[in-house]
Every structure is written in C-alpha cells, then in structure tokens.
Amino acid sequence: MGEHFLPKRGNYRGLIVYQKAECIYDITYYFTSTYLQKGDRTIDQMVQAARSGKQNIAEGSAASATSSATEIKLMNVARASLQELLTDYEDYLRVRGLEIWDVNSEKAIQTRRVCALHNDSAYYRDAIAKRSDETICNIAITLIHQTDAIFGKLISRLEDDFVRNGGIKEQMTRARLEYRRTHGEEHKANEPNKSHED
Fold it and tell me: What distance lies between CA 108 and its chain's CA centroid?
C-alpha cells in the first residue's frame, strides 16, 4: 500500500531536464570565467542562476516522495532561474553588438538539432572550448529554450497529477481510511460470537 503514496521517485539525474540544466551550468561556468572580467558582479549572478536551475530540480525531485506541492514549487523556481540566465546571455550579446541568432537561421536550426541530441555536459565542455563568445551564448540560449519547453510539459504533468490524486497527505489519508475499512471488516468477520453465558 505504501507504493501508492510514497512512489519511488527522486532519481533527478535520470531526468532529461536535469541533464540539460547541468549542461547549462557547465557552459555558464566556463563562459563567465573566460569572457567576463574578474570582479564583474554578472559572473556571480549568472553562475548562481545556472546553479539554482540545476539544484532546485534535484531538491524538487528529492522532495517528490513526500510533498508534491514542494516538488512543483521548486521546479517552478528552477525554471524561473534559467529564464533569468537567458536574459543575461541576451544582454551580453546585445550590448556588445553581437548576434542573437534568428530562430530560422541555419546556425540556429543546426544548433537546435545538436542540442536536442546531446544531454551530456562533457560534450559541451569540449565543444565550447573551440567556440567564440557569440557562439557559446547562442548555444546556451538554445539549451535554455529547450529546457524551458521540457519544464513546461513536466510541470503541467505534475500539476495535473496533483489535481487528480491530491498531495501526499491526501493520498496517505485515503490509504489509512481504506486500510481501516478493509481491516475493520476482516476483524468483524473473524471476531467470534460472544456468549452471554460465562
């Protein structure tokens, strides 16, 4: 019965959304340490936003076994953190007169294809070492957009499940009531008839 309200969840490393968030973090760490001047507050802001995206997925997944509401909340926090990071990358390109690739450009289309196929952060750590700051920013932007789309589907599914089945507390209450009902009936069925005589 415990399997109904304490599902085996929490394997955040197996989530594609986490894998992509880890790729984004590694790209951001490399990018900020390579292309931003030491002491620039933007470094901490970008790295922290990338870290928040990754860590809140892990924490939300860990919380999933005991609190669906907390899981949903943390997934939304992670999503918002990556949206904040997206604006930082776009700002970097805009203020320096660099190109934000048009979604229909060949470069953007090819990057989307590659990013859709690779969720291993080691792949990106190797690839970006040979790329310009403009290209790295656009790779990060592409990954953030893809991750955001996955977040949208994941959070929608979690919310639907929460509406249909309630949170963990509601599921536990139903399980307790069901246990009492079935075991109470069994107890009555097995209870010997008492005699009024000693």
Answer: 24
* Alpha carbons 16 and 168: distance in angstroms, whole number: 24
Distances (CA, A) of 45 to 1, 29, 115, 124, 190: 45, 11, 24, 21, 66
List the one residue out of 126, 130, 136, 131 whose CA is nearest residue 100. 136
Q: What is the arithmetic mean of pLDDT over 125-154? A: 97
Residues contacting 64, CB < 8 A, separation 6+ = 7, 9, 10, 71
Q: How many CB atoms are located within 10 Å of the residue 58 CB?
A: 18
Q: Any idea how long the chain is?
A: 198
Q: Could you tell me which residue, 40 or 198, shows the higher pLDDT? A: 40
Residue 173 has pLDDT above 70, yes or no: no
Tell me how crowded residue 120 is: count the other CB atoms within 10 A of its CB: 12
Please choose, from the candidates 8, 186, 27, the residue with its C-alpha nearest in 3D space to the C-alpha of residue 119: 27
d(CA 196, CA 6): 46
Separation of alpha carbons 116 and 109, rounded Å: 11
3-state DSSP call for residue 10? coil
In order, the DSSP letters of 87-137 are: HHHHHHHHHTT-----TTSHHHHHHHHHHHH---HHHHHHHHTTS-HHHHH
